[in-house]
Amino acid sequence: MAEHDVDVVVIGGGPGGYVAAIRASQLGLKAAVVERENLGGICLNWGCIPTKALLRSAEVKHLIDHAKDFGITVGKAEIDLNAVVERSRGVAKRLSSGISHLMKKNKIAVFMASASLGGMAKGKRQVKLDNGDMINAKSVILATGARARALPGIEANGETIVTYRDAMTPKTMPKTLIVVGSGAIGIEFASFYADMGVQVTVIEAMDRILPAEDDEISAMAAKSFTNRGLTLMTGAKLGAVKAGKGVTAEVTHQGKTQSLTADRMILAVGITANTDGIGLEQTKVKLDRGHVITDGSMRTDEPGIYAIGDMTGAPWLAHKASHEGIIAAEHIAGLGEGHGVKKTDIPGCTYCRPQVASVGLSEKAAIAAGHDIKVGRFPFLANGKAIALGDEDGMIKTIFDAKTGELLGAHMIGPEVTELIQGYVVAKKLETTEEDLMHTIFPHPTLSEAMHESVLDAFDKAIHF
20 to 30 Å CA-CA from 122: which of 247, 274, 382, 424? Predict the structure, then answer.
């Protein structure tokens, strides 16, 4: 057994963990990362990045299918599924290798192993690795992430009933597919497979798809998906599921119970924090509904132990984890108390077609919070760039406090809105008012002009609609 002494050890090498280690190293701390599978974590290897590569392939196919609309005649698009998957995996591998380079550049020791918390020895926390090594650290940052949540009585078999991992690396393309869950993960897979020619049915227990989004945006997304031929069953209850050559699911929808059959089913019903097996029972770390409780500096109730990312609760987003990692590292380095992450400042993006993005309060949430609000809307069908792109499905919606002009929330659906949303994120962070946004000059012709017009519309000043 080898012993290693460091200032801070990060358990988990995902987007929260490796960023925390880099920031700690930048601040002069001797840092180490323990990762049991792949640097970059689920996001880089099995989530955010490879799914976007898949969705890009689907987007290219969609453009080829509609090339005639742009005055170009091509043959029928043929899908080489192995090549599509291989490209996706190659993108993930390239970025994971990049993380390894960053670790070396910042002189961060990387241990490929599983880890669990031990006791204290000479003022340091002992972290045990399953390869027999021991790391002694002044501070520990837990960044173990989360895993796909299972449904009682329904077990993924990797063939006909699958989770995101198998859905991302299909050996064959099904003709029919059931997606259980319509959050970001479920809807992205539904969109990908539908564009690849699969008949998709989405089952959602809530009364609308994308339930975390503003009601109006959810409704527009539902209309778009339905127009594309997807079947959306909202307010539905999933009963018994049987797997054979395909899958048969009992679903109660609109008061009627029916049996659905498909070649494959994807389970996308949320995630569960990875808090088991890491020695928390030996500490004062507290959990709330399975997630680790932290303060504004990402400290747990156990001195010297911090927690970041998915294991600390919603929203389960890579950029939230990275930001929390920086907060924890800076507190450990003595830069003062952190202020945590304000959830209404965290953007959310869903990369389906059409794309969806948002930040801040929805219209309902703003009213529930007691705000007197002004709401602006601007459709992409009135935006010159969107029309030129042949992609005018969607709109931008902005919500302001009527008295103060504070930007409370922004909600988008349409072309490249996952790139546009950062404009409103910066505006919120700088406490920009409607006056500032209305007097900002937006370039023409761009999709971003719709952002400007939405603000103007909230105060009855829209020019082009």
Answer: 274
